[in-house]
Fold each of these.
Amino acid sequence: MRAFPSPVLSAAAFAACVAVPMGAWADPLPPAAKAEVTALLGKLTASSCEFNRNGDWHSAAEAKSHLERKLSYLEDKNLVKTAEQFIDLGATKSSMSGKPYLVRCGGAAPVESKTWLSRELAVVRAAGKGASAPATGPTTSR
């Protein structure tokens, strides 16, 4: 006769599995994307720009802190794998109100954060095209 595990043991095993935080299985942003997001947030911090969330203007340092929290949340939920996904899902609008984030630099008119961050991401990528960029085009081996 085949023995089956006791119902108490099965329930305990199930409880142990669901008790593990989901973040334990979360994948962080891949290294290349993490480097881009880090560089992007660094550019924001180094700028003299202000960041508008829900009608209130914040310093670039405050914006960076807020966006890092959103990135962490997105990583914990396995929702982001690229810098573009971070911009689209975490740095474009308030998840509470749905209002778009704005960036204002100096005396310039505010622009939506998606526009500003996407433009700066292009600058980050252009600056990184030197030594670390993978070769493109066909390769031959001899």
Amino acid sequence: MDVTFSDPVPVVDGASSGVVVLAEMRENPLSVDECLAAVRLPEVGGIGLFIGTVRDHDHGRSVGDLEYSAHPTAARELARVAAEVGADLGVRAIAVLHRTGRLEIGDIAVVVAAGAAHRAEALGACRRLIDDVKEQVPIWKRQGFADGSSEWVGAC
């Protein structure tokens, strides 16, 4: 299920200047440029950007690949979390994309961007958004290890 906000959506009934401009779960490769462009607004003076990639190890074990699975409500929860961060931190624009499906080492798994008037707010919102996504959005990761074993890790 994909959820996209093509026009800025005011957060918390307009109570904040923060807006979610993009919040989507995708089976296809993610675009860093798309997230960056989504938060590049005239009133934005600083952008925080986080790109999560698939690494080749976890807790001392070699990882060969991984697969993300998401609950049917994940896209809605992704948008909710983004809206909360925008409202709480007063940023101007929030964008978040998360992959599902099978990924290889080096693939982009998640992109988070926050645009604010100043860098401190943008970087703080970016950090909080990725932390809250990992804690609250129902996404699970199956890691395939080099020895042939695998494990599921819950994001929340």
Amino acid sequence: MSFLRSFTFASLLMAGTGLLFPVASFAGDHHGSRGDDDDRVPPVTDPLTWQECGACHMPFPAALMPAASWQAVMGDLSNHFGEDASLPAATVTAITDYLTRNAGRGSLSTGAPLTRISEQGWWIREHRNEVSPRQWEQAGSKANCKACHKGAEQGDFER
């Protein structure tokens, strides 16, 4: 997933103001050689995140979303994609800290953070023309990474 590896900050200088604004972008195309780490991200290594998140779904690697997205997800666990996934405050804090410390570097946006991995621009680009309707049906959900990526829990998203 070169989107994680090739994150760059482009500096835009506002004319006459001398202000520097960082602009995040995901560059590159992961469909190059398979001999590199384009399709790998650090797996979840926090036992509490594995225990709590993994009780209902694959614990998603933190690098798949930016910190603001993880904060939004963890800030509304009573409505976690239609389920009440409420946890004690100390547990929420610990998991949120882990996710935000290890989060991906997403684009700077003025809108609300995207709370689904499948809403992230890189995810849409990666899956746009690569997954057939039959494969989506077999997976059952866009959140079921393991349906196509057997090493997803270890951070390996090669097909």
